[in-house]
Amino acid sequence: MKPLTLRRTVITLAALSGLLAATAVGSALLGPEHIGLGRAVAILIGRDTPLSDSDIGRTILLHIRLPRIVLAALVGATLAVTGAVLQSILRNPLAEPHLIGVSAGAALGVMIAGLVELPGALVGLTTTSILAFGGGLSALIVLYQLSKVQGRIRPETLVLAGVILNGTLTAGIMVLTTYLDPTRFVGRVVWLMGNLGSLDLGTLSVIGPFLLAGMGLLCLQGHRLTVMTLGPDTAQSLGIRAEFVTRAGLVVSALLIAVAVSVSGMIGFVGIVIPHILRRLIGSDYRLLLPASVLSGAIFLIVADTVARVALSPTEVPVGLVTALCGGPFFLSLLAKRRTMGAA
Amino acid sequence: MGAPAPASAEPVVVRDDLGRTHAFAAPPERIVSISPALTEALFALGLDDAVVGVSDFCDFPEAARAKPKVGGVTPNIEVIVGLRPDLVLGTGGIGMREFAARMDRLGIPALGFEPNSIDAVFERILRLGEVTGRRERAQQLVERLRHRLDTVTGRRPPGLPPRVLYLVDEDPYITVGAGSFLYDVLIKAGAQPFDGGTTAYPRIGMEAIVGFDPEVIFFADDTPDGGERRLPAWRRWNAISAVRSGRLYAIPRGLVNRPGPRIVDAVEMIASKLHVSHDLSVPVHPPFP
């Protein structure tokens, strides 16, 4: 791969940004209710005239589709960029957001939400989201403590602890399923398979800046994370504070994952497929890979969620199934193509 | 009360919803029910003493709570065998087929009933009456239930039925599909339910809900004030007629989700909420007179 130049960075990110904008507009125009482009623009700039009293175009565009597209973009970006970061600091190409147990902690919170109802909703978040974040955060604290060996975070220990934590928490989820009313059970399981339709713009304005700030912090670590893929000792000799980058990268990523899972469930494949595809297309320099992951993850999840909304309308498919069914085969075909070309 | 069939009579042959057939030479005297709906039916047929075990979910009538428990989603085979039943009753769900096959190997007759409409519920109650030697009592019970159901349908106000959305869960939104048992309950109560497709519990988006514009929304919720409690949060969906008129109601899960004798209670309860503007006061009959 050619060395990274400013020109290539700018062109790549501009192209991805344009694609993201086009995807968002396309998604906003698709759905069970027909809303044309002209009407959509009129609604957005506040110059629409309702066709009749029962006209619901405005409600649907501004309060249903728009929050959903923004959330899909935020969650997709978060999963993709944290996947890339974890692959670097854990020096493990299989690392992905759901590997380290934080998602399973959040999932346990989701199941508990099927048994209890919190009084009132904080800043518009549902009981499910609040308990999911609590579960994810608790899992992070346990993981962090377990992975410290003689005061240092050991990647191998962390991956091992994450896998075991995942298994233990999944068992906890299964225990809870026996206590749930069968009709409640359906909802909980469906929620876990990916769900982007339960937030409004007010709630998004609370979690959106948090996710954006976290992703910004990670993107600024591009140079350090590129060097980190060479191993902590090499990184240390090149003047990188490896231990600090590992810890900060882990904590920031895990917090972002906990927030993303608590508002959207377990959406798989974004965190592993997007960074790997990008590495093949634009190279492994994290200075470009990270912002490109943000944009591509957003595009991918908006497309997947649009398919989830529209494919079997009015029934919705859990978006996690769409990402797995599209992302999995696509990635495998990429591997197969590489193999026949003898380059992999 | 129907007299118990004499032991010398022809064996009663019954077919269940799993396609299994069993011949009963005499009415069973020790029955385990792992279906809350069938437990209610057994008590409604006056078989209180014959019920020797129930599932963890069987909470009605009160006397059912006192019966030995045999487990929840996966019943404990050992506990069931220990109760020495001569009939085990369950649903027609996925796990039931394997469960019934295990009962076969243990020499215990097992039947699974899964009615998908109110008429089918009545028919299963009659079949249960046949097996248990309570034919007359079952006929009387079904006659009463049918009469109450006809009363509700007869009082339906003229004009189009109101558009109704029944939500089993809200995050994400999950409703009931056409062809499911609950869908029939809504139809019988005089509703035009949201048609979410053929699956039993389809998941739907808010866009589809706003597009359907329900006039009444029911929530599966065991707390009586569940409808009013949700209203503030639903205010942001003011485009929905039900929200503007405040017609959000809670319906207890155990009542509507059970294809048993209390299903007519559910129809009456839903109908009374639907046609409230017509001042229709439906008397609530005690289910077990």
Structure described in brief:
The complex is a heterodimer of chains A (344) and B (289). Helices cover 72% and strands 1% of the residues of chain A. Chain A is an all-alpha fold.
Topology:
The complex is a heterodimer of chains A (344) and B (289).
Chain A: H1 6-29, H2 37-44, H3 57-89, H4 102-112, H5 127-147, E1 148-149, E2 152-153, H6 155-177, H7 182-192, H8 201-219, H9 222-228, H10 232-237, H11 242-264, H12 270-282, H13 286-310, H14 319-341
Antiparallel strand pairs in A: 1-2
Helix pairs in contact in A: 1-3, 1-13, 2-3, 3-8, 3-11, 3-12, 3-13, 4-5, 4-6, 4-11, 5-6, 5-11, 8-11, 9-13, 12-13, 12-14, 13-14
Chain B: E1 12-15, E2 21-24, E3 31-33, H1 36-44, E4 51-54, H2 62-65, H3 77-82, E5 87-90, H4 94-105, E6 110-112, H5 118-131, H6 135-154, E7 163-167, E8 169-170, E9 173-174, H7 181-188, E10 192-193, E11 203-204, H8 206-212, E12 216-220, H9 226-234, H10 241-244, E13 248-251, H11 253-256, H12 263-274
Parallel strand pairs in B: 3-4, 3-5, 5-6, 7-10, 7-12, 12-13
Antiparallel strand pairs in B: 1-2, 8-9, 9-11
Helix pairs in contact in B: 5-6, 6-12
